[in-house]
Amino acid sequence: MTEDRRTLPLPVGRFGGKIAPSAAASTPSFPERINAPTEAPNVVLIMTDDVGFGVASTFGGPVPTPNLDRLAAKGLVYNRFHTTALCSPSRAALLTGRNQHAVGTGVVTDLATGYPGYTSIIPKSAATIAEVLRQNGYSTSMFGKHHNVPMWEETAAGPFDHWPTGLGFEYFYGFIGGATNQWHPNLVRGTSRVVVSDTGSGDAVLDRFLADDAINWLHEQKAAAPDKPFFMYYAPGTAHSPHQAPKEWIERFTGEFDQGWDVLHAETVARQKTEKLIPASTEVTSRPEGIPAWADLSSERKQVAARMMEVYAGMIAFQDAQIGRVLDEISRMGLEDNTLVIFIEGDNGTSPEGGIEGSTNSGATIVDRGSEDGSWRYSQLDVLGSEKTLGHFPVGWTWALNSPLPWMKGVASHLGGTRNGLVVSWPAGIRQRGVRTQFHYITDIMPTILEAARVPAPDMVNGVPQQRMDGISFAYSFKSAKVPERRHTQYFELMGNRALYHDGWLAATTPQRLPWQSTVPPGDLTKWPWELYNLEQDFAQAKNLADRYPQKLESLKLLWEKQARANSVYPLDDSTLSRLRHNPYKAARNSYTYWGPVRIPDASAPPLRDRSFTLIADVEIPANGGEGVLAASGGHFGGWGFYLKDGRPIAVHRASQQKRDYFEVKTTSPLSPGRMKITYTFAIDAGAGAKRGGELAIRVDGVELAKGRIDRLASFDEAQEPFEIGDDSGTQVSDDYGANVRFNGIIKNVTVDVQR
Asked: Is this prediction's pTM over 0.85?
């Protein structure tokens, strides 16, 4: 077949048979099937989450990653590969080969605004690598995290254009959104919500589920079409918070980090130099102001911090082992030689979201750093990493794990946020070994894969003209370490932090907000000061040359301006939580009605965390008495539960997993069998603030049966547990449900009215 592959779908050939009045006199002819180019490789694209440059042993880090190491030994290591500094933008750029703002994803989908570069809507003019390969004869699949669905499209009502199955992936198993609980993941297969059956074994976490499913898909794909190449995008949520891992893997690191982050930083840099992963002359910046020295911590703080790092290390190590299972199966099936594996270790730098002290409930403490104290964290030492915590380590580890680079996730102006390790292995296609030092960007992945597959970037896909491809294939580097880099220019921007790379130089704004803080500093962000670095001589961005070369800096600032206008970067916005999960399409909705058991994603659920509401359950109580959940919003780490126990209506609210933050209102007498309306009314306190509460009343058929005080409300739920009718299938808001979680009667409907 010699079709022009620049227009997709490829045309169906003309009928080549003969049609006569009877079948006996006719000759059939089926259309030719679309086949991939001859000897096109299988492709496995892996990208982990919140893993900085200095984490994995492959890049001199403290966490053993033997499976990434073996890929590196059989392929190439890239030490100047770059991401966007944040999740959704990196993933959009990876999948489309276009700059993140040019495909509407200048920030995470949760913070989308109504400007072209920030809609969170990937346009059809930017067909993904999966869509292009699918229409060129590949089987396509995705496993893991997809944080590129506009929040108003996350429900069962769709549309599903921006779900993986709408972006070219024929099969998807994973989760939608920024984070999920590893022990109780919000899983999706295709576009349907699913609940895992394996809950309770020691390794029943998301990373294992993903590997199990990926291996099963491989078996089925090769059983059905052994000669058809596959494209697998494997994007585990590890090591985004919550930091959770099997206890056995956490214990492997007991005592390994007692030396603290200052020593770890120095040890990592030394290893990187010894292993020639970075130049021997590399200078590094000092620990950022605001992060305490390890020596200044109390004994209890050191124990908590060290254990949190052990959890993170266990999480990374277990993830590496699960990816190793997938790679082992590819090898066992005889597919390794012609499989191109591209492994991006992190979608941005290591995360600072745990703050100075770390957290056992990371979502809540992002909003309210005062919601935990040191004694509470110390009391949780034995359960850190388990399903009883949603942990995140202190920012001191964040700094050390981005060694030797300055700053961290969320800072697009500095390399600690944007430089991630990259390993490429393809035994049949790459004979060279060693380190590659050319400057590359995440948009370069798609054109590299297309070149390896001998598939051109299309001009037209499904009738839509395609916008420019911003990525530049780095396949040229496969044969030589000394070939000059082909990427000369790349802009960066994220929540006001911006930078411009051009021919070895980097101009960058000075961060005005510490990345573990959400408060926006005063001042005009267009007037932030700029720094200047010669990255050819300064690997770790340690020598600011702005005063020495002011003209060079001005020329790069002008080039950044040109790039910004060409990529829809304006308007600049340094706000953070103030635009969190703003849904422009449900702003006027104050009433919700549900006609039976459902699971509604948090993004589209009734907003019960910060306002007054009334929930009315029209139910029929069975003859043996009512038991089970009528409605639940959130889970064990923050949320509401409305249920019946021993026939009595009860309401509970958790502001966190701490006992002090558990509030209950319940009636004294059981309800009689029959149909009735159970009403829960919550009146929030006047004013504002994270610690405000309110009063909740329970009525049955209009008669008040109980009233009680809720002293403190839950804030942001990072794990984004769903709103459910008739069940609480996640981490469960209440420990009091017992064995009767699902409601045993009939739910006619549930209505929720909220005050805005």
From this structure: yes
